């Protein structure tokens, strides 16, 4: 990795490098602390910014990831109210990054003059959007989903062209979007902004309004892509603002065909441990505050999986006034689960778009706890310096064996226990395949916690 002032070059492979030039970084954040780079197994886009802040591909202290959402909320509020960045706030931000467990969420609560609807993009920004939403009590939130829910119509469906799983669905009540208030769209990064433009066109066609804001950690749009946003404003007769923590441009330099060393970083290992597996129904320990969503999902082979959904995820919509009840429930649940902890380091693992509630729970479990989530995205694994994905495993999704879930950067003998959190009771045969995929880690025990089972 080569740095030079406000420019930095990332060598992802022998034949591929990306140079970024920073234009906007008000909180003086380090790129090395923000992300690494990796190669996607995706012909639509060859590279990936592997975030160190999201709790997706790289394990993280859960409080740090929660803080990123709060920081996005602060930056959104700061720009909306045209406030200056003070030295005090920069010092505070860097202090929390260094000691995330000292984060006091109550200090990051903001008021807006008018209600706002926040929308987080699946799968990566479901927790990011949720953690930003919780900072605004007079707001509403939902996240898009890959799930196909039986008995509900998606009032808006749009495509994410560069993603491995492209379809986004929205299952909230129409009242969440059929209004004139501002909509805030939250994603972890903008490269071209095409996905955002897709959803704005889709919303504007059915529920027109005057203002949208796009909030993201990284904004790498080229001047040409930024011009497309101006054209979108003219086309849709609305204002589209973009708020980011870091903004710049990037230049790709590919000197030849991409070559991958498939032998490095795979699942084979000399130290094989057959971990003990336990399954626990969490709602039997501490009941969720709201009624479950009594709809079922449709699998890839068109089978109906008859287990309901949690309202508390935000997939079906939440109001800001409901946040205290959810946080009270999670704190109580964490107190119960602490009794189950063994000694040593613990990894809490969320599942695909089910990220925020496990992350919040992990943040309440005490010291020596890291958090990350599975993903549908296949990424090339290489054990080379500064590369973002060092290890990788894959196994069937908990309720759909036709969908692969990937988990990255779990190293050998890194954890004493792994706790896996599912929204809905998994199929036992898929649990066993996950256990086999994680045998290389050397972990002795895997606890699987699920919130809802079939009625």
TrEMBL record:
<dbReference type="GO" id="GO:0016757">
    <property type="term" value="F:glycosyltransferase activity"/>
</dbReference>
<dbReference type="InterPro" id="IPR011214">
    <property type="entry name" value="UCP020967"/>
</dbReference>
<keyword id="KW-0808">Transferase</keyword>
<dbReference type="InterPro" id="IPR041688">
    <property type="entry name" value="PRTase_2"/>
</dbReference>
<dbReference type="InterPro" id="IPR029057">
    <property type="entry name" value="PRTase-like"/>
</dbReference>
<feature type="domain" description="TRSP">
    <location>
        <begin position="312"/>
        <end position="436"/>
    </location>
</feature>
<dbReference type="Pfam" id="PF12500">
    <property type="entry name" value="TRSP"/>
</dbReference>
<keyword id="KW-0328">Glycosyltransferase</keyword>
<dbReference type="InterPro" id="IPR000836">
    <property type="entry name" value="PRTase_dom"/>
</dbReference>
<dbReference type="InterPro" id="IPR022537">
    <property type="entry name" value="TRSP_dom"/>
</dbReference>
<dbReference type="Pfam" id="PF15609">
    <property type="entry name" value="PRTase_2"/>
</dbReference>
<protein>
    <submittedName>
        <fullName>Phosphoribosyltransferase-like predicted ribonucleoside biosynthesis protein</fullName>
    </submittedName>
</protein>
<feature type="domain" description="Orotate phosphoribosyltransferase-like">
    <location>
        <begin position="35"/>
        <end position="249"/>
    </location>
</feature>
